[in-house]
Design a protein that fits this description.
Chains A, B: This is 1,3-propanediol dehydrogenase. Chains A, B: GO terms for molecular function: alcohol dehydrogenase (NAD+) activity; metal ion binding. Chains A, B: Pfam families: ADH_Fe_C, Fe-ADH. The structure is a homodimer. With about 375 residues, chain A is of the alpha/beta class. Chain A folds into two domains: about 170 residues, 3-Layer(aba) Sandwich (Rossmann fold), CATH 3.40.50; about 200 residues, Dehydroquinate synthase-like - alpha domain (Dehydroquinate synthase-like, alpha domain), CATH 1.20.1090. The first copy, chain A, is about 50% helix and about 10% strand. Chain A contains 13 helices and ten strands. In chain A, the strands form two sheets. The first copy, chain A, has a six-stranded parallel beta sheet with strand order 2-10-7-5-3-4, with helices on both faces. In chain A, a hairpin with a 4-residue loop joins strand 8 and strand 9. In chain A, helix 5 packs antiparallel against helix 6 and helix 10 packs across helix 11. Chain A is globular and about 65 Å long.
Chain lengths: ~375, ~375
């Protein structure tokens, strides 16, 4: 084992924890905070609680919520303009992964010169960022604890990956009670995103004992609690467990990075405005089958964590039960099974050569456990079509 | 479950990771660092590597190593004077728990007015501290990741507990290869300290799902690797696993706090200069027996983590096998079995009423899972005598 690093923000976790936002802003020295959210979020009761807590702490705030389902460069630029015009001094993201990623992008441009494109890659941010507090509302992206932001370059139509320790927020406030406003489709897709994070981090070539601990826990929690969480908005135990799964999967992948599912999903999501979690859900079992050859023992371990009885099976056989489990889970919770099921108007097949090339160059491909070439990515896309 | 918080430093883990110290200091903006260590540490080869890495980064350093086996108030005061006279701007602790606790104390007094006594308790530190990097050399205390420093008040002869998020270091560098310079006695006592941290954090009334994950892992690792780590200085796999156990036990107790073992051990360690890990090792099985009543299921789970076959046993019966495991482990690795075996010149029995009162007032007693009164502490001390 070489040298490995692990970073995470301060985490405040539990039902009612959004009430800590005012005090948290104060603790970080904020006076006027910039809240990034989306049009649905600002209509909820708990969003009011957040702004009330901020006001009660004697702070001012500005809201910015002109966001779409994937986080775009121009949304970051427009937000930064507003942040600077309003002379804010801290960034708060309240929403799903896209919202948090836009909030991080605004944090970058608020103190660093240049376009958001100039920070693509690893460790390109040189000037310290303002305090960042993230409040995830989907139990999915893990962005609230990660050193990543994934933003769409709307000209090139690709998702850019920006990695830096300064993107690890100062505080992540994870309140499972806000998850009860999600519908079943969003609960399903974000839940499968969590599973994808955990599995890709666990088999990543950059995994470490510390990331494994979190990946393993996340896998078990998804196996036990994703179905009941999709089944009922009111099952707060299942929501709490899925929020914990999302947190731990986020800690795992932030430090172990991901693999081919995310590389391919970023390519698709950069080109078309599709739900990230759903694209991952379709691709995951195909990529698991492909990667099985590289680390059968790890996939056998995943099968155990998912609750499969693997006694008497070889590692390869046990690993295949993990793939089958993921397929069954995905069907049970009504996730799409093929990329062509997702209501896209364009002919996806015609884009496969281009998407495959983009995926191959994605930063997440570097840590995929099995060597992968253009023809392999192409073949995986065709299988999932 | 209420609202709970979890904080940890950036962790750099792995053989050879001490080479990262220079770059780490630079990253935190340090120019002249104050290194706290002890007379044994400065004679090792790897200490030279640390100072070389700092010099190669173009930084200056000052060394302070006039420390004893428990961290004392006057050692903090003297160190602070040197820190200020030399106009240092960052604190590095290289050593066991005592060294790291003194380094944290110096960090407090370097920017805050008042005696070290005035910061005793929770959240008394108001001014931000200088950057802190800790390099543990004993795989025991967990102080490199915790929000605690435990310092002896040499006048009152008690151990003061200081708790603050600002005591969580910025970076913890954990290099298992430095552990091979420890002798068997120190490996045994610090290893049992790790087990005590993990068990007390797991049964603490302030435990959370995130602290449980780390506590559980630490317990399993100690069960598997403490014996071989004591048996051979050269077993680097065992040292690496024990370093990981120490780290995870530290993450658990930093956020879940501890219990009666530590409360009592602090009382003893404040009065007499005894090895903290050894005092814990003696007290642990007695306190486990006492606490079993409060949470038999948790103790049954501990038994499982220790590798006991608990099938067909009630929780209480299973919990008792955990106590027996700890006793056997402690005997196997040659740890003292009674407080009177530890070479103390004074008549410990005469001090029991006083020690019991001090232990009852210790901050760690608050999170003990079973209600505890003066007569109970007195009785536990007498059992362990």
């Amino acid at each position: 084992m070489g040298i490995n690093k692990f970073v995470m923000p301060e985490v405040i976790f539990g039902n009612g924890s959004i009430s800590q936002i005012g005090e948290s802003c104060l603790r970080l020295g904020a006076k006027k905070v910039f809240i990034v959210s989306d049009p649905n979020v600002i209509q909820t009761n708990w969003y009011n609680e957040i702004t009330k807590s901020i006001e009660q702490a004697g702070l001012h705030y500005v809201n910015y919520n002109e966001l779409t389902i994937n986080p775009k460069d121009f949304e970051v630029e427009k937000g930064t303009q507003s942040y600077l015009e309003n002379e804010c001094d801290a960034v708060i993201g309240v929403g799903g992964g896209s919202t948090i990623d836009v909030a991080k992008g605004i944090a970058i441009l608020s103190t660093n010169e240049g376009t958001i494109q100039s920070f693509e890659g690893i460790d390109k941010i040189t000037t310290p960022l303002p305090p960042q507090i993230m409040i995830p509302t989907t139990a999915g992206s893990g962005s609230e604890v990660s050193q990543f932001t994934i933003l769409v370059d709307s000209t090139r139509k690709i998702k850019m990956t920006i990695v830096s320790k300064s993107l690890v927020p100062d505080i992540a406030i994870i309140d499972p009670s806000v998850l009860s406003t999600k519908d079943a489709q969003l609960t399903a897709s974000t839940g499968l995103d969590v599973l994808t994070h955990a599995i890709e981090a666990f088999v990543s070539v950059a995994s470490t004992p510390l990331t494994d601990v979190h990946a393993q826990n996340a896998i078990s929690l998804v196996a036990d609690y994703l179905r009941p969480s999709v089944a009922s908005k009111l099952n707060i135990e299942a929501k709490t467990k899925m929020a914990m799964a999302s947190l731990q999967a986020g800690l795992a992948f932030s430090n172990a990075i991901l693999g081919a599912v995310h590389a391919m999903s970023h390519a698709v999501g950069g080109r078309f405005d599709m739900l990230h979690g759903e694209v991952n859900a379709v691709l995951l079992p195909y990529v698991m089958e492909y990667n099985l050859l590289a680390c059968p023992d790890k996939f056998a371990h995943i099968a155990q964590l998912l609750g499969e009885d693997i006694q008497g099976l070889t590692s390869i056989e046990a690993g295949r039960t993990a793939v089958a489990f993921v397929r069954d889970l995905s069907i049970d919770i009504g996730a799409p099974q093929r990329l062509s099921d997702m209501g896209l108007k364009e002919d996806l097949e015609a884009y496969i050569p281009e998407l495959s090339q983009v995926a191959l160059n994605d930063a997440c491909m570097i840590t995929n456990p099995r060597d992968i070439f253009l023809k392999d990515v192409d073949s995986l896309f065709r299988q999932a079509l």
